[in-house]
Amino acid sequence: MAEPKFLAIGVDTVDAEQGAPAPDRLISGDPKFRTWNVEEREGGLYAGIWESTPGKWRIVYDEWEFCHILSGVSVIAEDGGQARTVKAGDSFVLRPGFRGSWEVLETTRKEYVIKL
């Protein structure tokens, strides 16, 4: 059977992967991640849903990522730049070379598309 060309993005379509920030990147708290990686394509394209409980850690982006916040509140701060609070309904792109921190104030869930 041919692969379907329409793919719904949701937490009920695949099992969640569990995770956490690398210990050397953790700044505060005990954040836990759940990731529902719904799409993965050759050439480094990924799409799905990610969720984190409260905490703060350093982030370093080598990839390009589009994010759409579904729920919760987080603060993303760029090294040498400003901190931005993101909440449900906000969309943004993190470009390769972004360095800073991600702080989850209220458990945050986002949809993402990543291109390596």
From TrEMBL:
* One Pfam family hit: Cupin_3
Source species, domain of life: Bacteria
**Ranges annotated as spanning the membrane:** none
Task: Note the SUPFAM superfamilies from the entry.
Answer: RmlC-like cupins
Where does the (S)-ureidoglycine aminohydrolase cupin domain lie?
A: 40-112
| Protein name from the UniProt record | (S)-ureidoglycine aminohydrolase cupin domain-containing protein
**Species this chain originates from:** Rhizobium loti (Mesorhizobium loti)
